[in-house]
Design a protein that fits this description.
The protein contains eight helices and eleven strands. The radius of gyration is 24 Å and the shape is elongated.
């Protein structure tokens, strides 16, 4: 029993600290991988209750100790992950506590009736609710992936707040839907670039197969009263796996005049852009728009990003 516990704990610990080995580029696989927090803490909570003095205590003491344990250990794990170069995720800490609650509920099936906190049907219902809360991000990803595929070759039209989750916007001060300025539909997205080396935004979740199209079209509104240089980069998954080398992607600087600009990029140019190889147009990972070292805040609007022939 002791060896089994050690092996299972080791495996689950690796899940918490190691990257997803299946497909790190897939947010769905990563979302499923992150649910390991629930099962890890459910297992530890089960051990904590069944193998210690808590097994003879009241359900309330079991619950309080389990939740405090998960909060302290989960917080420590997030701090350690931060120290080794990983991100601290409050969502992970919340999932840790859900795992502790799920482990507590599992134990309740086997404790004597007089010390059980409620009847079995309620325990089953609460367990389903905990699992649903844990897997809700996965369900959301599945739904968004289906919408992304249905909308293709439209890549981003900014008609819904939900589409913003596909973007990395940590390097800009504003990235929000704007219903006042647009070229198509009823909204666009406002991007406010801060001062710095390379402030920008990246679409990191995109339908990957661009091979059946000739052009990559982007509508950009330059909000300044003067021309603005902005750089676009397009890259495939191989580029991400081999270190983001500058010469291994498509890079293009565009001079935007004030007002709306319609950019029409030849995918043949994207195909030939990487040095020493061809871009995998059937395996595109995303694209970015950024500015080189602006000396003041700059703003643009993006709309109607799509592929065409």
């Amino acid at each position: 029993m002791r060896n089994i516990v050690l092996i299972i704990t080791l495996i689950m610990s690796v899940m918490l600290f190691a990257d997803n080995p299946i497909d790190s580029s897939s947010r769905l696989y990563q979302g499923l991988w992150n649910t390991g927090h629930l099962f890890f803490f459910a297992f530890l909570t089960w051990l904590l209750i069944t193998q210690t003095y808590l097994s003879e205590r009241s359900w309330l003491k079991m619950l309080v100790v389990s939740l405090v344990f998960s909060l302290l250990l989960g917080g420590l794990i997030e701090i350690v992950q931060f120290l080794v170069g990983r991100y601290m995720e409050w969502q992970d800490l919340f999932t840790d506590m859900l795992g502790a609650l799920f482990g507590f509920l599992v134990v309740q099936f086997s404790v004597p009736v007089e010390r059980r906190f409620t009847v079995r049907p309620v325990i089953i219902l609460l367990s389903i609710i905990v699992l649903s809360m844990t897997f809700y991000p996965v369900f959301s990803i599945v739904r968004d992936n289906q919408k992304m595929q249905a909308d293709f070759p439209v890549i981003a039209d900014f008609e819904s707040e939900d589409t913003l989750v596909r973007w990395d916007n940590e390097d800009v001060s504003k990235f929000e839907i704007d219903y006042q300025l647009y070229t198509k539909g009823g909204s666009s997205v406002l991007v406010e670039f801060t001062t710095g080396d390379y402030p920008g935004v990246s679409l990191e979740v995109v339908y990957p197969d661009w091979s059946g199209y000739n052009f990559f079209d982007v509508s950009v509104h330059n909000d300044q009263n003067e021309n603005l240089d902005i750089e676009i980069k397009v890259y495939d998954h191989l580029h991400k796996r081999t270190g983001y080398n500058y010469g291994d992607r498509f890079n293009h600087v565009v001079n935007l005049h004030p007002g709306w600009n319609t950019l029409k990029i030849k995918l043949l140019d994207v195909f030939h852009a990487p040095k020493g190889r061809s871009m995998n147009l059937d395996d595109i990972a995303g694209f970015s728009l950024f500015i080189h070292d602006p000396d003041e805040i700059k703003t643009i609007h993006l709309d109607d990003i799509h592929l065409s022939n």
